Amino acid sequence: MKNITKLGAVSALSLIIGASAAFAENIKIAFIDPLSGPFASTGTNGLHQFEFAADYMINQNGGVLGGTEFEVVGFDNKISPKESLIQLQVAIDQGIRYIVQGNSSGVANALTEAVDKHNRRNPDSRVLFLNYAAVDPALTNDKCNFWHFRFDAHADMKMDAVTDSIAADTDIKNVYLIGQDYSFGKAVAAAANKYIGEKRPDITIVGDELHPIGKVKDFTPYSRKIVNAETDAVITGNWGADMLGLGKSIIENGYTGPIYTYYAAGSGITAAFGEAGKGSIRLVGEGQVNPPPSDEASAYYTAFKAKYPDGNVDQTRISNTIGMLAQAIEEAGTADDVVAVANALSGMEYDTIWGGKVMMRPQDHQAIQDLHIFEHTNEGIDFPYDNSEYGVRVIKTIPMASADIETTCKMKAPS
Amino acid sequence: MDLILVNLIDGLVTGLLLFMLSAGLTLIFSMMGVLNFAHASFYMLGAYFGYQISIALGFWMGLLVAPLIVGVMGAAVERYGLRRVHQYGHVPELIFTFGLALLIEELVQFIWGKNQMPYDVPDILNFTAFAISGNSIPAYKIFMIFISVGIFIGLLYILTKTRVGMIIQAALSYPRTVEALGHNVPLIFMGVFGVGTALAGVAGVIAGPVLGTFPGMAFVLGSIVFVTIVIGGLGSLWGALVASLLIGWITTFAKSYNIEMENILNAIGIATPENMDENLFRDFWSLTSPQIADILPYILMVLILIFRPAGLFGKRTQ
Amino acid sequence: MSDTDPRTDLPEGARPKEQLKTDPTKPAQRMGAGTMTITLLPWIIASIAMMVLPMIFTNNSALTIMNQMSITIIFALAYNMLLGQGGMLSFGHAVYAGVGGFFCMHLMNMSDFFAMLPLPVLPLFGGLFGMGLALIVGAFSTRSAGTVFAMISLGVGELIAASSVIVVAFFGGEEGISGDRTYAQPFFGVEFLQQQEVYYLTAAWVIISAALMYAWSRTPVGRMANAVRDNPERAEFLGYSARWVRYYSFVASGFFAGVSGGLFAINYEILTEENLNAASSGIILLVTFLGGVGFFFGPIIGAVVFTLVQTVLSLETELWAFYAGSLFVATVMFFPGGLAGLIMMHVPAFKLGKAKLLVMPYLKTLLPAALGILGLCALVEMTFHYRHGATGDNEMTLFWTTFDSHTLLPWIIAGAVALIGIAIARKTAPDLKDAWNEANTAGGGS
Question: Which CATH architecture has domain B2-257+288-307?
Answer without folding.
Answer: Orthogonal Bundle (1.10)
